[in-house]
Design goal:
The protein has 11 helices and 18 strands. It is of the alpha+beta class. It folds into 3 domains: 111 residues, Dipeptide-binding Protein, Domain 1 (Dipeptide-binding Protein, domain 1); 104 residues, Periplasmic binding protein-like II (D-Maltodextrin-Binding Protein, domain 2, 3-Layer(aba) Sandwich), CATH 3.40.190; 202 residues, Dipeptide-binding Protein, Domain 3 (Dipeptide-binding Protein, domain 3, Roll). Strands 10, 11, 12, 13, 14, 15 and 16 form a 7-stranded mixed β-sheet that branches. The relative contact order is 0.16.
């Protein structure tokens, strides 16, 4: 909600996934590929009136890569060896190795520029440089933004924006039908889309996301520390039934953690095809006692709750007994994702762009630790040749598929229902964003 609207980075994602100038209006790369020199926008101020300059960029990047950093995507900054202020509008970032993807990394929401003057309150009152300012928040209910009259770039066309949190599919349907919301991105009830499509008040937009929807398995503890058990789970899953039952036919099957619309995608669904008899044989080979009781933790999205019920039934058919625990986002983030990693199975969509690198972090919540995979990603980080990068990406995809790290289900589509008069909404979601800076009402 704050990405691009309130907080801005050096670069930013466009609606087509392109990397565009942000607070950096241009950048140069040294011949050895080690230094990126960013030329910053002039006359930019933060929403609290403090000025923006190269010192803020240095503060942000040094903070994000610090040893005690809690940045969720700290790996984005791992290649930085030094950040140097050249002058107030120029900053040089020196890397330890060449990285042709560095402007891409700087476009992530985790790389937005912050200021030392306002950093202490950023969790509850974000202060950025964007076209909207943070106005208010009712926890669990809504967030309000207001147009920034002092914005340095192309001003927003909306005077104010209210984001409402509605996770229940029935409530979402009622809110749109009643006109309580003007647009609903990631609409959670795909069974209702035909009804909206037939209503002249609404338009339905079907796009794609970077969201690999997975049945994540806790590789760091039994029974899923055993690859044979993980493979058994993979063969117990019928993707077609999950897509039909949870997504009403919307979604593209995947066999690895990579977006099918990416030109380097490898179709590895055959490695984990639906084969319950094979699954039973693998469980016997693994020597586990059946029924095998495990905890399945499900966050609020309908794809997780609905998909979880279907997956649980499929697993029970081969002797695995998931005990479903439905949790809210705060609990899922705390108990599953961040530190505790107290789960056996969970269903989640990873909507960060090109995020296969998470599998190189043994501390990541699903606990995969493969030095060979980590070496492939290390090579990818310093490789700039497109053909070699493609080969490394294909190797990485194949490795995690063959290790059955997780159950790979489907690529999450983006369903948006909106008032027909509302223009400028993103069709696709190349990153986690609700960028409203170009949205307007058609007269």
């Amino acid at each position: 909600m704050v990405y691009s609207n309130v907080m801005e980075g050096l670069t930013r994602f466009g609606p087509d996934g392109s990397i565009n100038p942000g607070l950096a209006r241009s950048w140069d790369v040294s011949e050895d590929g080690l230094t990126y020199t960013f030329h910053l926008a002039q006359d930019v101020t933060f929403h609290d009136g403090t000025g923006f300059d190269a010192e803020d960029v240095k503060f942000t990047l040094d903070r994000a890569r610090a040893e005690d950093s809690t940045n969720a995507q700290k790996a984005l900054f791992a290649g930085i060896s030094e950040v140097t202020v050249v002058d107030p509008l120029t900053v040089a970032v020196t890397l330890s190795n060449p990285d042709g993807a560095f402007p891409f990394k700087m476009a992530w929401g985790d790389a937005v520029i912050v200021a030392p003057e306002s950093i202490e309150q950023i969790k509850t009152h974000p202060v950025g440089t964007g076209a909207f300012t943070f106005a208010s928040r009712i926890q669990g209910d809504s967030i309000e933004l207001a147009k920034n009259p002092e914005y340095w770039g192309e001003p927003a066309m909306l005077d104010e924006v209210t984001f409402k949190f509605i996770s229940d599919p029935s409530a979402a349907f009622a809110a749109v039908m009643a006109g309580d919301v003007d647009a609903f991105a990631a609409f959670p009830a795909p069974e209702n889309l035909p009804q909206f499509d037939a209503d002249p008040r609404f338009k339905v937009m079907i796009g794609s996301t970077e969201g690999e929807t997975i049945l994540a398995m806790n590789n760091a503890r039994e029974p899923f520390s055993n690859q044979t058990v993980r493979e058994a789970v993979a063969h117990a899953i019928n993707r077609a039934d999950i897509i039909d039952g949870a997504m009403f036919g919307y979604g593209t099957p995947i066999g690895t953690h990579f977006a099918p619309h990416n030109p380097d995608y490898v179709d590895l669904t055959g490695l984990s095809d639906f084969d319950p008899e094979r699954s039973k044989a693998l469980l016997e080979e693994a020597g586990v006692t059946l029924p095998l009781k495990v905890k399945m933790t499900l966050p609020p999205p309908s794809y997780a709750r609905r998909g979880g019920e279907i997956v649980a039934a499929q697993l029970r058919a081969v002797g695995i007994e998931p005990q479903i625990e439905n949790v809210e986002w705060a609990q899922w983030l705390e108990s599953t994702f961040r530190n505790a990693h107290d789960f056996d199975l969970t269903i989640i969509s990873h909507t960060e762009p090109m995020d296969i690198g998470i599998y190189a972090d043994p501390e990541y919540y699903f606990g995969y630790d493969n030095p060979e995979f980590q070496d492939v990603l290390a090579q990818l980080d310093v490789e700039s040749d497109p053909q070699k990068r493609s080969e490394l990406l294909k190797t990485a995809q194949t490795t995690i598929a063959e290790d059955y790290v997780n159950g790979y289900l489907f690529q999450l589509p983006l369903h948006t229902v909106a008032d027909t008069r509302l223009e400028g909404l993103w069709l696709n979601a190349p990153t986690q964003a609700a960028d409203l800076t170009g949205v307007y009402w058609e007269e």
